[in-house]
Amino acid sequence: MSLARHNALRYILNRMVQQSNARLDASFAALSDPTRRGVLEQLGRGDASITDLADRFHMTLTGMKKHVGVLEQAGLVATEKVGRVRTCTLGPRRLDAEMMWLERYRQLWDERFDALDQVVESLKQKEKNDGRNKAK
Amino acid sequence: MSLARHNALRYILNRMVQQSNARLDASFAALSDPTRRGVLEQLGRGDASITDLADRFHMTLTGMKKHVGVLEQAGLVATEKVGRVRTCTLGPRRLDAEMMWLERYRQLWDERFDALDQVVESLKQKEKNDGRNKAK
Questions:
Q1: B92 — contact with chain A (CB < 8 Å)?
Q2: What is the ipTM of this complex?
């Protein structure tokens, strides 16, 4: 591969990683608030106006608008204004990338703790053998 | 059930929901940064000192200490100081609750979009029938 081609590919790959990182940053940050998680669960049951949501979560309109803005930025909610009412629906993102990240992490976690278990097991075995050798 | 018992149960349930919410808040916030996700992936491969992590992620010691602090608060990393070196390992939390939240959300999402698909389908069918009736 030529150096120019190599650098171009590297650039594209870096951009892809950055974009995927930015998306995960935005969605995990959006999920780090109980009201925003509640809004997503609520919209999973049916569309709602900002006023409905503010009522249901005992918030001011301004407060709810902010939360919906964060969810919208992260692609988790879509809004549409018809007349004076802004209706919120679930956005196009199904949190696939977030799910994949968690799954991979849990796999690493399991492997890591399995490895530690094996270390502990082999230490125990060694201790047992040492004890036996001393007893002889 | 007596009112006192009812209120006591309600209080306990509320506390449980609040605690579970606080945990999800902390872990999703901890995951909303690419360096912190990188640190978790790195520790999944093996323990590391704060200095190792700072080097690997091209950060100052102070910056890395802050990130590790956030992960530790969320129960995702555990640290132990031996002499002058603070070693980081994966914490006890396997992100089970976070995984469950995402799974439930995706289920709601699927059901919601299936329901919308059905509405669109029935509208199409209606249009087709109306067209046929007009053509008669």
A1: no
A2: 0.81
